[in-house]
Structure formats: C-alpha cells, structure tokens
Amino acid sequence: MKGLHTLRPLLFSAGMTLLLVMMAGWYLPGRVIFNYTDSLPHGVYLIRDIRTCEHGDVVVFPVPQHVRKLVQDRGWLNEGDMLMKPVLARSGEECCMRDGLLVINGRTVSRISATDADGRSMPVTEFCGTVPDGMIIVGTAMENSFDSRYFGPVAVSSVTGKAVALLTWESGRQDRQGSHGNEQEAS
C-alpha cells in the first residue's frame, strides 16, 4: 500500500489536468483535438478559426484527396483524422522540392525522404517555383513528417483552423509512422 500513497498526488494532478483541459474545450470557442504524432508535441490543442495563414501557424486540414488512399492503406490515419502542420511558405514565396531537399526562399528547410520508416516508397512531389495564390506549404524539419514534401501545396480554403496548444509533452519517440500526422478530434 505504500506505493499507492506515493502515486496519489500524481494521479490527482493528472486527473485535475485532464478535467481542466476538458473544461477548456467546453468553454473556449473552437474544437479540441489530440495530437498523438511525433511531428509536433503530443498533447491537446484548441482549434480556433483562422482568417489568414501566417508563417509558423499550426494549421489543421483534411488529408489531400490525392494521397488519402495511400495514408489509409499504410495505416497512418484513421478515417476522418486531420493533419496538423506548421505553415512554412505562403502565396508568392519561392519554394523548391527537388533533389531530396525542400528549399524555401533560398534556404534549405529539410530533406525529403524517398521511403517511409518501413522502407516503402513515398510519393514524389516535384514543385519548383512561386507558391500559387490561395496555397501554402506546410511541414516540419522531421524527415518522417507527412507534409507538403510528399503531397504538395495545400489550398488555404481547405484549412479548418489554427491549432493552439493547451497541454503538450514530448513523446521521446522520433521514429516510425507516428510522425505522419495522425490527429484525432476529441469533440
């Protein structure tokens, strides 16, 4: 029984934190989703309305139609899950996805992997030029993050909101398919 006494404060704190997050979801305008992937910190995010997509905004959007089957066949997402990624480039900026690199405005942002964590080939998006009007480039520096490097620019009109962290923690896991963008709506 001695071990239970030392766990009580931890369990109480975890329970109160969960209760506060749930209450925030009920009282704050927006939806609450849970991110369980490694491309962003794990945790609970409030999804707010967004008028414009700015650099660094973490935006939420459905999986682009042309890669939806791939994502579901590989088990990276549950049907209806959304992607949640930071904005790297906006309309009018220069972006190049070629030769295994993502370069934005002349600066190398990240590598582009030819295969996923299980060795399966990834889609190839060769785009080099000005980001078109009404489009954004999304992604992270993580090679395994499933983002614009693999599906191209995202229509701003498909963005359903901006994610604001309510409670996050680092997973400690930097491998496998968890970094592909699996976000689960909690409400």
Automatic annotation (TrEMBL):
GO terms for molecular function: serine-type endopeptidase activity; signal peptidase activity. The chain crosses the membrane at residues 7-28. It is found in: Membrane. Its EC number is 3.4.21.89. It is a single-pass type II membrane protein. The keyword Transport does not apply. Residues 28-166 form the Peptidase S26 domain. The keyword Nuclease does not apply. One of its GO terms (biological process) is signal peptide processing. It is an enzyme of class 3 (hydrolase). Keywords: Hydrolase, Membrane, Plasmid, Protease, Transmembrane, Transmembrane helix. SUPFAM superfamilies: LexA/Signal peptidase. Belongs to the peptidase S26 family. This is Signal peptidase I. It comes from Prosthecochloris aestuarii (strain DSM 271 / SK 413). The lineage of its organism: Bacteria, Pseudomonadati, Chlorobiota, Chlorobiia, Chlorobiales.
